[in-house]
Amino acid sequence: MSRVMIFKRFERFWHWAQALLIFVLLYTGFTIHGTLTTLEFGTAVEVHTLAAWALIVLWLFAIFWHVTTGEWRQYIPTRNGLFAVMHYYVVGTFTGAPHPYRKTSQAKHNPLQRLAYLFFKLVISPVIWASGLLYLFYNDWPGVLAGALSLEAVALVHTGAAFAMLVLVIAHVYMATLGKTVTSHIKPMITGYEDLEERH
Amino acid sequence: MGRISRRLSTRSIVFLTFFGVITVSLVQSVNAVQQPSPTADHSKFKVLQGPFERAEDVTTACLECHTEAGEQIRGTTHWSWVYKHQETGQTLGKSQVINSFCGMAVTNEPRCTSCHVGYGWEDMKQPPPTADNAVDCLVCHDTTGGYWKFPTLAGHPSYIPREWPKGSGKMVQPPDLEHIAQNVGSSGRANCGSCHFYGGGGDGVKHGDLDSSLVNPPKELDVHMSPDGLNFSCSDCHTTGGHAVTGSRYQMTAKDQLGIDVPGHTDFTRASCESCHGLQPHQAQKLNDHIDKLACQTCHVPAFARGGVPTKTWWDWSTAGRLDEGGKPLEIMDEHGHPSYLSEKGDFRHGENVIPEYAWFDGTVKYTMVEDALDIDHPPVAVNRVEGHPDDPGSRIWPFKVMRGKQPFDLQHQTLLATHVFGADDTSLWSNYSWEKALQAASEMSGMPYSGEFDFIETTMHWPITHMVPPADQALDCGSCHQADSRLAGLGGIYMPGHDRSVWLDRIGWLLVAAALFGVLVHAAARIVVSRRRGQ
Question: What is the ipTM of this complex?
């Protein structure tokens, strides 16, 4: 049995900081939305804004990291093995079949993950950023924008994206438990190392 | 090196903290600065030594030096009780409008004209008296508190001992005019308040944000007027020039775009919050982002009638005139000791710590005049209405006291009616409890048409709330508006996070979330079952 580094230190920091910020943003966001009432609205807005800026900064670093390290290639979609992974989640996981995908440091995400994360990065997040920044700077909209767009439209898009994010988080957290054991996917995200074993 | 710099920084933090505490306490202790003493000691003026038989004689003495003051007063709304509205073209003012309290001032002289800034206006069909010395200097400039315009003498104080309130056995002594004349000064809160706090016939009745508790308010009641705070007089904001007072309720500045009033550069009035606080009053930008749509008062006057004086919120004239078995007028008190029924006036409701109602307001108030037809099929009818619209950049959300009640109207003409309620004659409502006579007499006295057929209709009246500003930490918190059960519920025209939402987006969103959770649960349950079976 050997250990191999899958998730580098920055990557792990980025993942867990992002996870924390997303939970904070969901919690404060749904408070602002009026769903949760445990926090005062003003406090929720302050924390939400602060967390949003923190996440934007984190993303700037992450984008820089992805570009400079070439890690962005990890998210290039592939059909190769996609259906095998889907089949595993629907059937194989119950019949005791092994996970059809082996992560390596060169290809750490399985084809389904690639698609999901690409969707998260290229669709949900940009929509949240754009609508969120428009929301935040509503009072500073130039006249052209103010004539074409309403706060309500922006708020609805932002809320819609938040629901998508919540669904993604639920699926992501659950699927993290679908490794060989419940924690075997989670451990490398913490320690960085994956135990490589012989296939059985 | 590292240690030294760390020690230095610790020391500087201590110093800065100490300095900060000192600065904050200095800032917080910015209290009323003592007004400099005036350049004249009026007790030294020969002309003010008296003796004065009547109040007009004091005015004559005043005008000896203040040669233009009388003419200036006669040019103001305080004198003419006529206000020509620039926006609506309506001729308003106390001599013209009808309200939902005692109706009209016309037909109720000399009771209503007891608040005229003059002496002897006994018939409002005529203009105010023209004599030079008919102007009342003392009501605004008495500093002794000893001057009181008697409620039924058309602006005069009483020159003989008189009982007030009627039947109370309490005697009001004539004022010491010599003493008062020798101690005149600039107007304080009690001067303006002697009329403006008592509108509607009693303390706090009318406005809700103006009552006698503001003569000496604690800081929590009014941070500006409190002697423990800034100790403002009314004219510190309602800037005066040549005896004309700025700040009008008929045409308010709903959105002051000029900001801080620099003399010579702006409009010479500080009767708006922005006049001193500017257009970016908060440290937090998100709060400043609100001021284009929210009047300062909307958050900073969370409730009115907070000083222990109740304000009337409901006045139903239709029940007036009920007498007890002995034919005596009734006086019924509510659980707080405020009258809830008087035979003279009908049913009342009073309120303290009243939460305002909110409306879009561009500053213009339009009145239903006595000659204007009512939409009697859709009560309540508005005695006045505030103009404004969410899409109008000059409108903001303002707080109001909405006065409600029932008052008489003409069934044939479908107009509101002047009422002759006061008067020691055989026709006034308060002497004989007969609406028929009171309305007939009012029509004859005012010349306003009356068909002889009347009924009562529910009315509303909007009173902008702007005084009684507590310290900033008692302003509304965000959640007062940004929640489903909001203070601004039903106002419309804006999307308010936390208050507004798309029901369908929420339904679809939560359905997807529920589906995801369901999928996860089913999948997890299946995993557990399968693994147990395989384990067996």
Answer: 0.90
